[in-house]
Design a protein that fits this description.
Elements lengths: L1 H45 L1 H9 L1 H20 L6 H19 L2 H4 L2 H24 L7 H22 L2 H31 L5 H26 L4
Helix pairs in contact: 1-4, 1-8, 1-9, 3-4, 4-9, 6-8, 6-9, 7-8, 8-9
Length: about 230
């Protein structure tokens, strides 16, 4: 009996070590991605030529957006076939492209509004991610509910591009805040569950970082649209 208890304890300790290791790696890569995004956004803002090209040419802007989507789908769908180097390069490239497109927010919202929204986002994200990591509950049932909410937000956002309703945009943003807040907790829990099943290494860490990076950025955008001060 003592041997069984000792074996169980060692297994439990190994699982905790794997979980902590993967979470640290995920947050390290996510932090690297956000840092790249911030530096590229600042560089774009400091270059009138690049900023004008992005903000003044819809073809370039939407081309960058399509490039971002292609990188996300490539990294998410082909992670097992990619080398560690290529997975890392795609993640950094996506973070850089996102910095270019996000730079135009400074033309729409005040600097103080962007800063305060970022701080609010960091607080909400941190709290929900901590909950997702610490909770003993099974959050698997959240997945389908949040996915349906995400699809609804995407469809409504596309429709509102043509409708152009400010009230609809406000409602979409409010729902989006709820969805991405929930996804932050769920995705953190899912990463922790993957580690418990033996998943480890750089590629899973980068994929997890991409997932949480997307949660953070989208939560930031929804909060900014919901209550940001426009210029």
């Amino acid at each position: 009996m003592n041997e069984l208890n000792s074996s169980y304890t060692r297994t439990a300790d190994q699982i905790i070590v794997r979980q902590n290791t993967l979470i640290r790696q995920v947050y390290a890569w996510m932090g690297a991605g956000l840092t790249v995004t911030a530096f590229v956004a600042l560089f774009t803002l400091s270059s009138p030529v690049i900023l004008q090209a992005v903000a003044g040419n819809r073809l370039i802007f939407f081309g960058l957006m399509l490039g971002e989507l292609a990188l996300v789908f490539t990294l998410s769908g082909a992670i097992n076939r990619l080398s560690e180097f290529n997975a890392t390069a795609i993640f950094i490239a996506y973070s850089a492209l996102n910095g270019v497109t996000l730079s135009i927010l400074a033309l729409v919202y005040t600097a103080s509004s962007i800063t305060s929204t970022f701080v609010t986002t960091a607080g909400m994200f941190g709290a929900m991610s901590l909950y997702g990591y610490m909770t003993k509950k099974d959050l698997s049932s959240w997945g389908s509910f949040l996915f349906m909410g995400l699809i609804g937000v995407v469809i409504a956002s596309v429709v509102n591009i043509f409708v152009g309703s400010s009230s609809v945009s406000w409602v979409i943003s409010a729902i989006g805040v709820i969805v991405f807040t929930g996804l932050t907790a769920y995705d953190t829990w899912k990463i922790k569950a993957m580690a418990a099943q033996g998943v480890e290494g750089r590629k899973p860490a980068i994929l997890g970082a991409l997932t949480l990076y997307l949660d953070f950025i989208n939560l930031f955008l929804m909060l900014l649209r919901f209550g940001g001060d426009r210029r």
